[in-house]
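Tutorial handout. Part one gives the primary structure; part two gives the three-dimensional structure as tokens.
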Amino acid sequence: MPDPKDRLYDLLPVYIRRRDLESGGPLRALLQVIAEQVCTVESDIAQLYQNWFIETCESWAVPYIGDLIGHRPLHEGGRAANPDEGDCGSNPIVSVRRDVANTIHYRRRKGTLALLEVLAREVAGWPARAVEFGRLMAVCQSLNHLRPERGRTIDLRAGDALDLAGSAFDLLPRNVDLRGPYTPGGVGIFVFRLKTYSATRSLAYCASEADDAGEHCFTFSPVGADIALFHQPFPDPDPVRVASEWNLPGPIRRRALSQRIEEGLVIASPVYYGEGQSVAIWAGSKAKSPVPANCVLPADLSGWAFIPPPGRVALDPELGRIAFHPNEIPPQVLVTYHYGFSADLGGGEYACPDSPSDDAVVYRIGGSGREPKRLLRTTLEKWKHEKPANAVIEIGDSSTYEEEESHIHLDEGQSLTVRAAAGARPVIRSIHLSGERGGRLILEGLMIAGRVEVTGDLESLRVRHCTLFPGHHGAGRPAWGILLRNTAARLVVQHSILGPIQIERTQNDEPSAVRVSDSILDAGGGAHAAICEPGGETAWAVLTVKRSTVLGKILAHAIHLAEDSIFVGRVICSTRQSGCMRFCYVPPRSRTPARHNCQPDLAVAGLAQDACAAAEAQISPVFESVRYGDATYCQLSDVCPDEIRRGASDESEMGVFHDLFQPQRGDNLAMRLEEYVPAAFKAVTWFAT
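Part two.
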């Protein structure tokens, strides 16, 4: 292949090139320098032509093209990568190039309901349903233009319509409310912020230990928590139609799951139930096909009072419960289902970046149809016998590995990663980790239904995208977490949900280093300790907490850095002379290092003493739910004060969902709705989830 630098030299006659070679090639060297500059000029001319088009222009030209068409720029949002934390940062919420490219297309569709849904999806990243409230108003109709479907009184026999009252799919007529949304020019945009996640052939939990439950009662959650089942959204390929209920990610209603085939006979709807659908139940681990839909009975299993008839299986999608007839209990129940959550957090089947393992010995288990009862123990014994310096145990299914405790001992300098394969969420009971100096363990993509206990002179324990079941608060179940017992191991927690961290270490040693980022630390509320010694005393540890939500008290020796986080319980540090807390919510009467732009400190600054208590009570986090298992777990409520919802260092929300940049997304959507809603109309954004 000819060298591009010789493009001019190759144009010369052969006798000139021969004479140049005989004299050492000075002419060739000169022409190579000239050819390099010619290539640069030609490339620049070609790029100038490409810069006329938004699809091919350079990044610096995007705002100039946008200015030519009157494009209003949006908040990009996003966080830069931080290699020290082992993450890749957060991607921008909106592509400016794509937004500029679609501006003309959007303007041609201005004034249509379907366009408002497209804007919510493209600008804010939220699926949405647009509703024109004026069409739901009860009005006096013209005899020349009768619309019998509008303005009717409520039909109390229309159970499905009543079940949807107050939701995004509410079609019940309303009277005019000039102070509310139901006006002739009112338009509502119901956005669905929750995502739908899958769990494939997971072992259902026998709820016989719960009150009023028997051996025939099961929960979809492998740890026994009540969860609302969500359905798989099926996007409408036609962008002109307004989204319907099955086009958007949302919970499955009992009435929606019910299909009446004849008088007195109700079965599960094949739209939601069945293999390949949103929900499926297998009666036994060796069953080749799920329980038929005509044998599944949608029911309300609150209090486990309902007992299905023989040959039928009761399914409650709103509580995530299953009930068999007491005389027809299968040995095992496997379930496939979908659940809702705000972000890729904790153990799940979503894609997460793997830890580097190029030189590692990989042991793969699961996914082969074998019983998972002893596969993990057998693989650990094989790993222990072979003793590789760097190894990965990859679990390829969402089964429950029922060993009571997995014992892992690391030799000096040995590294082990236990992770879930792509599309899997395995459940293991508990882990006891020990080892020698330099040992490293990484847990990734797992759901752990017990405690992780660490002993020995290890180097580090890293927990990424895992769930350590925080327990049923108030139901007598303990809140499990991590116990560091007389170990120098550095604990790093990323994108995880876990119970309390307990640290047992004498003050003669160096304090333990604990780093928590983008995670939920749940001890059951502010009255319980999220980080402490096993006896409830101050832990000999130095903490770093970033973009996290802590539901419990912090009792630690020192805090090196805390930023963009929410602490529900009091924070008590023994050392206040070093460290910093910035852009956090810290409860009053906490004992912390220096605080910078924290709440409610900013709210009470300059107020009289009698007004401080009222301001502190007003500026406090409000969550949609703090119960593990709820789809809105640790999601900030709409009524949460803006000092917290926009109180982070980059004006995003404090806490674990900081990187969703929901305030910026909401501002972007409001800006675009103002631009594309017709004159005399007013658009209001409602959060459906």
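Part three, for discussion. The first strand starts at residue 128 and ends at 132. The longest helix spans residues 26-50.
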